[in-house]
Request: fold
Amino acid sequence: MRAAFDPQTVRADFPTLQREVRPGVPLVYLDSTASSLKPRQVVERLADFYLHHYANIHRGIHTLAEEATAAYEEARQKVALFLGAHEAEEIIFVRNATEAINLVAHAWARAHLRRGDLIVLTQAEHHANIVPWHILAAERGVRLAFVPVDGEGRLDLDAFHRLLAQGPRLVALTHMSNVTGVVPPVADMVRAARQAGARVLLDGAQAAPHLPLHVAALEVDFYAVSAHKMLGPSGIGALYARREVLETMQPFLGGGGMIRRVTLEGFAPAEPPARFEAGTPPIAEAVGWAAAIDYLQTLGMERLHAYEQELGAYALARLAEVPGLRLLGPTTMESRGAVFAFWLDAAHPHDVAQVLDHYGVAVRAGHHCAQPLHRHFGVPASARAGLYFYNTRADIDRLVEALGHVVRMFA
Amino acid sequence: MLDDLYREQIIDRFKHPRFRGALPDADARYEDENPLCGDHVVVYLKFDPQGRAQARFEGEGCAISMAAADLLMEYASGKTEAELRQISKDDVLALVGLSLSPARLKCALLPYKALKAALYGLQPKDAAEPSPEA
Reply:
């Protein structure tokens, strides 16, 4: 058994954590739910790749093109292993989790769904897992149904099973809410959905940075992730799609790289995953993402998760001390991640975030691309503190102290 | 720095607005929101027989947007339609008197956008309307 994780052993890898927002005011970064900081190792790998190995990939005969192609394909292998996919060919590189979901809506849903077909979503979804389906509904006449959530943001599983009885073609839900932190019982839900004959998509944008994953064992059909929330560069993400499903999908974007043959009369698409990767892909970003995965796996996802759960419990206890603070989400760490959106009676979330920034504490304010969920909680917006393994109890203390200033200022 | 952002006047206007409330038989009404943050404001304009405006707002949002709305409605009240049309962004920022980041600028200018849109929606008046300098 490895020793428990100590954040002090990694904080030096993140130069941002050493900076001040103003002279004498050190930064407390609590916005990792929006995007994580990057360790030196990722940025150095990116720099090394760009400075010494960079060329466009595929069909290059020269040494650099071969090195770049090998590094890009090795990155695909690393993402596959990290997610627990059977094979690297089940990983399609995209820009982010949003594009991954849109890819499913274009390349799978448009090939398989007809007017009247049902898609089951939940009230807790990020707009990235709502709007592509609204667009499809308007265009193709598919029906959308939403699993409601309770006062803590947990899914109504009875309602979910009732919707399954209607024979949906697709169930698409978040593996971890970016507002409430709730992690639904996905193993049971995926099994039930598949038994009901539905394909299943999990939006893993929030789960992948924090949870040990095994998409093949989950038997999920699609899994969407972004690199930038898990120490990687911005501009790259992945769609995992089960081989059997991948084969039945039509092309997404047309262009170079995604074809087998092009004539003036038409084209024949390449095999997956190339079929879905038109144009020069984010090559260096893939290499940087691989370095991020190496970094996470060296520390150990299980170990990081255990630490974040413990830090989250501390945060919940401390936030409960703040007068007039209403958490949007469960008040225990059971089946939830360490992201805490809240409403403060004293002040609007914008003002909360502004005053916290004055004290060096970076949180996000707004609806976090989850307007339906905020409407459910009866607030227009919230402030949100999102933790990662590089955060400490001292960071939580600084947050709570700064919230005290907000309360006094607006009281 | 925090004092620059939240002058006492801003907090006071936020907590105790003077020009908040609906005008049921308003000549113009416009509702606007900032989709990024959910700030929401409704501006009402009602003109008396002399063509002078009564201006009110309703809404919810951060201290900056709500205080800006209250200050702007005070500034707008008593002005003619032509004078209202001349109100500029800079006038609003001078009223608010804060140094704002780009994100917070959107908060401060939301009531201004709503006021301009309300004016745009007014039916053109006939010649009986007093001239701006009258």
Notes: The first strand of chain B starts at residue 28 and ends at 33. Chain B touches chain A at residues 1-2, 5-6, 11, 15, 36-40, 60-65, 104, 107 (CB under 8 Å).
